[in-house]
Design a protein that fits this description.
- With 446 residues, this protein is an alpha/beta fold.
- It has 4 domains: 7-109, Beta Barrel (OB fold (Dihydrolipoamide Acetyltransferase, E2P)), CATH 2.40.50; 131-267, Cobalamin-binding domain (Rossmann fold, 3-Layer(aba) Sandwich), CATH 3.40.50.280; 310-400; 405-444, no CATH class.
- Helix content is 45%, strand content 20%.
- It has helices at residues 7-21, 111-126, 153-162, 181-197, 221-229, 246-250, 261-265, 269-308, 310-353, 359-397; strands at residues 25-36, 42-47, 52-57, 81-91, 96-106, 143-148, 170-175, 202-207, 234-238, 253-254, 410-413, 431-436, 439-444.
- The longest helix has 44 residues, at 310-353.
Length: 446
């Protein structure tokens, strides 16, 4: 007895069969029953003389353009002949199959161009052209890998221009074909080999100019995905300035021609030399300014250290003592002179008033006055001597060398005369100077 399918089983089987055998197809036909939904999706029937096919073109895929660059989704209509690329899809609920359009183009633009646009749209939707996926090209790289034909004019142009750019550098050539069926596999293998060896910092894909067919190896999905998967940053220099390939869109940087690539990799040698000269001049000026600043700082610290040194303090106290001593002597002389003048004046008055007394009585009174004056002068001198003694004692007690009389020692480093305050300031085998009350001695720390 034959196996009896359910409607769902049969429909699912047909769905699996069609979608697996026709994963991506190109279909040419004429539009009929065209309609555009409010959602922006486009529905139409693609037909020829003998058959028809339901097509749905979703809004997110509507990027095709006509010969003049206008959006094709806005120009479609019944009777128009087009080429549609997409995937076969079975809709089980209605029991029909339809074509999900990925790319739509007018008839007559050429199969290579249509394939180029279709792959470009596909890879762009996947994010292979996105700026956030671009890797940074290293500045002035030392080792550069070049993927190209080994005897090509493009390689010779690249090497010739590269001589004028950068300083020391090394160029590794990964030889491949750049045209024909075998070139696709070789280009992919060269990219993978360079990433595996990790001997260069950046990869360069270069090829001279040519027709769309000549450059087609760089418009293949295999090469595009190899570039996108590369851990090394990739620069392309393919064809002429007006030539754009899929590889250019995927690469991290595009050069307009093979000769333009060295300008993106290295700065001009003469510019580098000039920059080095300018940096050297800035470094010298900065160094001399630094030395001058440190010299001024050193002189300032040296002056501060001079005023803070014990010797300078002692000299300052001695000078102060000598000044006070001179002031005291001057005051004493001025005092004596003043008292002598007073005594002389009083003697004169006394003699005038005692003219009527006896000579003996005058002499007696005069001797009493003289004795009283002498006693007062002696008391004054003793008081001044006592104060002078106190000043001298205070000066002596404040001397930094006073503790040395009790057995203390001042330790200073021989190399800079710096006083040592803590044990951790001393190092083994360091020479020091020991200052005692009655002299100095050199010593070494063990």
């Amino acid at each position: 007895m034959p196996y009896i399918f359910t409607v769902s089983e049969l429909t699912q089987g047909l769905k699996d069969l069609l979608e697996s055998n026709f994963p991506f197809v190109w279909v040419k036909g004429q539009i009929s029953n065209y309609s555009k939904a409010t959602s922006g999706h486009i529905y139409f029937t693609l037909k020829d003389e003998q058959a028809c096919l339901q097509v749905v073109w979703f809004k997110g895929s509507q990027v095709g353009r006509d010969r003049e660059g206008r959006k094709l989704s806005e120009l479609l209509g019944d009777g128009q002949e087009i080429i549609v690329a997409g995937k076969i899809n079975v809709y089980p609920q209605r029991g029909v199959y339809q074509l999900i359009a990925e790319f739509v183009q007018e008839v007559g633009l050429g199969s290579l161009f249509l394939a180029f646009e279709a792959l470009k749209q596909k890879l762009e939707k996947e994010g292979l052209f996105a700026l956030e996926n671009k890797k940074t090209i290293p500045f002035n790289p030392y080792k550069v890998g070049v993927i190209t034909a080994p005897n090509s004019a493009a390689l010779q142009d690249f090497l010739k221009i590269a001589r004028d750019y950068g300083l020391s550098k090394e160029i590794v050539v990964y030889p491949t074909s750049v045209q024909g069926k075998e070139s696709v596999e070789q280009l992919v293998r060269a990219i993978e080999l360079a990433n595996l060896k990790e001997e260069v910092e950046v990869l360069v894909l270069i090829r001279g100019g040519g027709s769309l067919e000549d450059l087609w190896s760089f418009n293949t999905e295999e090469v595009a995905r190899a570039i996108f998967s590369s851990k090394l940053p990739v620069i392309t220099g393919i064809g002429h300035e007006v030539d754009f390939t899929i590889a250019d869109f995927v690469a991290d940087k595009r050069a307009s021609t093979p000769s333009h690539v060295p300008q993106l990799l290295w700065p001009l040698k003469e510019n580098l030399v000039r920059q080095v000269d300018e940096l050297q001049m800035d470094l010298e000026q900065g160094f001399f300014a630094f030395l001058k600043q440190k010299e001024e700082s050193f002189l300032h610290l040296k002056q501060k250290l001079f005023y803070l040194s014990p010797r300078e303090k002692i000299n300052s106290l001695i000078n102060k003592f000598n000044y006070l001593k001179q002031e005291l002597l001057y005051s004493w002389q001025e005092f004596i002179l003043k008292k002598e003048n007073i005594l002389s004046s009083k003697q004169s008055i006394l003699f005038d008033k005692l003219n009527d007394f006896k000579l003996d009585e005058k002499e007696y009174r005069l001797s009493l006055i003289r004795q009283e004056l002498l006693n007062w002068i002696e008391f004054f001198l003793q008081n001044k001597n006592y104060k002078l003694g106190l000043l001298a004692n205070n000066l002596e007690q404040s001397s930094p060398l006073k503790p040395l009389e009790k057995g203390y020692v001042l330790i200073s480093k021989k190399r800079n005369n710096k006083l040592v305050k803590r044990v951790k300031e001393l190092k083994s085998q360091e020479e020091v100077e020991l200052r005692f009350y009655d002299g100095k001695k050199d010593a070494k720390i063990i």
